[in-house]
Structures are given as C-alpha cells and as structure tokens.
Amino acid sequence: QIWIEGNIASGKTTCLEYFSKTSDIEVLTEPVSKWRNVQGCNPLGLMYQDPSRWGLTLQTYVQLTMLDRHVLPMSTPVRMMERSIYSAKYIFAENLYKSGKMPEVDFAVLSEWFEWIIKNIAIPVDLIVYLQTSPQTCYERLKQRCRDEEKVIPLEYLESIHNLYEDWLIHHKSFEVPAPVLVIPADHDLKKMLHQYEENREKILMAHC
Ligand SMILES: Nc1ncnc2c1ncn2[C@@H]1O[C@H](COP(=O)(O)OP(=O)(O)O)[C@@H](O)[C@H]1O
Ligand SMILES: O=c1ccn([C@H]2C[C@H](O)[C@@H](COP(=O)(O)O)O2)c(=O)[nH]1
C-alpha cells in the first residue's frame, strides 16, 4: 500500500490519475466530495469559514472517512491512496490546534480517538510518496483549481501545512513516520512530473515486495 502525501493542490490527484491507467493498481482518492456534502451539510466549507467552531467536526469526519478507506479490502496487488488518517491528524488537526483554532478539549478528544484507532486497527503502509512543493506553487495551483470552499485560504495557511509536512516526513522532528518516504520534487510542469513518475515507477510499484 502506497500513500501519496503532499500539501493542498500539490498534484496528488493528478499523480493518482496517471497511475490509475496502469493495470493491477487500485487508486483511492481522498473522499473530498463527502467532506463537502454529508447529509446536505458541508463541513469543509464550515471549517474554512469558522475553524474554531467546525474544525473538530471536519477532522472527526475526515478521520472516519479515511479509516473507511484504509480498511477496504484490496482488490489488486497494489493500492495507491491519497493521503491517510495519519496526515489528517499529524498535519491538519495539528495545524488547527497549533494555530490556536482548535480548542484544547477538541484536540484531546480527537487525539484519543486517533490513538485508539491506530492501536486497535491495522493500517498497513509500505511506502509514503511525498510530493514536495513550495507553498507558492500550491497557492497558484489552488487558485487555478478554484474550489469554492478554498477561496479563503491564504498563502500563510499553505506555509504552515508545508512546514508540518517537512517536519514529519523530511526532518523527522515531529511524529513517527510509519513507512519509508520517497520524495518527489513537484514544483515542475506536468510534462516533467509525468517523466519523474515514470522514473520512479518501479520503486513505487515494487514497494510492497
Ligand atoms: N505539475 C503541474 N503543473 C501545473 N499544474 C498542475 C500540475 N499538477 C497539477 N496541476 C493542477 O493543479 C491543480 C491541483 O492539482 P491536484 O492534482 O488536484 O492537486 P491535489 O490533489 O494535491 O490537491 C489542478 O488544477 C491541476 O490540474
Ligand atoms: O485532514 C484534512 C485533510 C484535508 N483537508 C482539506 C484540505 C483541502 O482543502 C481539502 C483536500 O484537498 P487536497 O486538494 O486533496 O489537498 O481538504 C482538511 O482540512 N483536513
């Protein structure tokens, strides 16, 4: 199992789309559509409007929907999955808490849930592919993608997410990393990115062997 990790709009979905054309690979994208519509409500939009009030609501739902993805039985030898329950906690929940936007009690409850899950439920991973971008690149791609809920995201938000990813996956300064990390520089244009995916294809697809 391979997780594709990276900042918002770093190119994860585009990377997965590319590999989805390969036979014997199952690709699981993030369930963003669920985060934008759970029984008619939009926790992603609410979180960006008022993170202190809705951060826990969103992150609880992200945690549930990512767990649901992780425990799906595999239908092919290789599964590539966009992000993970780990980055939901170590990057996004952490960012809300550290920036003072998630109350301590909310963070404590979310953390206990998370710890219980990773202790009691097997979440296998063989390789983490980290698409390493500059926050500025993500900011430009984010504006180009133009998702309604994300129009309020400032560059500083992407910088915080970037720093948390770097501390976790590059500097090993924050949390345990559950698998080896393959870093792919991802500021390049699409043509160069596809070339790099080809160059790394073997390393990625043989990770489970
Ligand atoms: N290498 C690239 N160069 C320029 N634009 C890109 C590149 N990769 C992706 N994009 C565009 O940037 C936006 C975000 O990409 P996406 O794959 O959705 O990122 P993520 O899934 O990480 O949020 C999309 O509009 C996509 O078409
Ligand atoms: O735990 C999480 C995971 C994701 N989000 C947000 C960040 C973005 O606005 C979307 C996901 O978009 P990507 O383009 O796939 O990065 O969801 C969050 O708030 N918490």
Automatic annotation (TrEMBL):
Active site, UniProt feature: 82 (proton acceptor)
Keywords for this protein: ATP-binding, DNA synthesis, Kinase, Mitochondrion, Nucleotide-binding, Transferase, Transit peptide
Entry's Gene Ontology cellular component terms: mitochondrion
Binding site for ATP: 6-14, 141-145
Keyword 4Fe-4S among record annotations: no
GO terms, molecular function: ATP binding; deoxycytidine kinase activity; thymidine kinase activity
Catalyzed reactions: thymidine + ATP = dTMP + ADP + H(+); 2'-deoxycytidine + ATP = dCMP + ADP + H(+); 2'-deoxyuridine + ATP = dUMP + ADP + H(+)
InterPro entries found in the cross-reference section: DCK/DGK, Deoxyribonucleoside_kinase, DNK_dom, P-loop_NTPase
Pfam families referenced in this protein's UniProt entry, alphabetically: dNK (PF01712)
Superkingdom field: Eukaryota
Stretches assigned to the Deoxynucleoside kinase domain: 2-205
EC number: 2.7.1.21, 2.7.1.74
GO biological process, one term: nucleotide metabolic process
Class of enzymatic activity (EC top level): transferase
Intracellular or extracellular location(s): Mitochondrion
Family: Belongs to the DCK/DGK family.
Protein name as it appears in the record: Thymidine kinase 2, mitochondrial
